[in-house]
Design a protein that fits this description.
13 helices; 0% strand; mainly alpha
């Protein structure tokens, strides 16, 4: 591991690039205590972020520091700060990736960026990815985003044709849905000729929303 750190700081471009690729594979590879201790070390993170930014490889930056944070439950704000600028990237796929890799920080900037993405025309891929990540990582969503985000996800659900993407959006509504969402699900899913599994999912989501509202 010490050799890898040295190579990440090398002035030789090829050596540094190869080391960055190895760090990327390590962050997404087999979960071990040894890897966690290495990748979540404060000094190591600074070196990793600096090395990746030198290579100007956005995909590797996203996948590496995002994986370190989510897989190892490491919520260092330097990861958030490194990825926030990508919320404004011209590529919608980069924007979505940046949001999904930082959603665990529960930062208002992230929720605002997600609302902006849902505010434009989304695809089945972005709907599925954002839906799953919201369902998996969203905790204590700021109240000022709940109503807006729920409405945007509902709109995406109506326009979406792909069942897997619809299922992911329903899961997201389980996390951010409110009382108005209950009426929406009853009308758009349970009272329509939807897929049986989708209706079963909707029933569970209604229970989740009702349970959260009762607290």
């Amino acid at each position: 591991m010490d050799i890898l750190l040295i190579e990440l700081q090398s002035e030789d471009v090829v050596t540094r690039k190869n080391a960055v690729a190895r760090i990327n594979r390590l962050s997404r590879g087999r979960w071990t205590v040894k890897n966690k201790e290495f990748l979540t070390d404060d000094a190591v993170l600074s070196i990793v972020i600096h090395a990746i930014e030198q290579e100007i490889d956005i995909t590797i930056l996203l996948n590496t520091v995002g994986s370190i944070s989510q897989r190892y439950e490491y919520y260092d704000l330097r990861i958030l700060e490194a990825l926030i600028p990508l919320y404004e990237h011209v590529s919608i796929s980069i924007k979505v990736a940046a949001c999904t890799w930082t959603i665990q920080f529960n930062d208002p900037k992230t929720w605002n960026a997600i609302c902006q993405i849902f505010g434009v025309k989304t695809t089945k891929i972005t709907n599925r990815l954002l839906g799953l990540m919201i369902a998996r990582h969203a905790k204590n969503v700021p109240q000022n985003f709940i109503v807006k985000l729920s409405s945007l996800i509902q709109n995406a659900f109506v326009q979406e044709k792909n069942l897997d993407a619809k299922d992911a959006l329903l899961l997201a509504l389980g996390k951010v849905g409110n009382d108005a969402t209950i009426a929406f699900i009853n009308k758009q899913v349970l009272k329509k000729g939807m897929d049986r599994l989708l209706k079963e999912r909707a029933t569970h989501i209604l229970e989740e929303i009702a349970e959260r509202s009762a607290k």
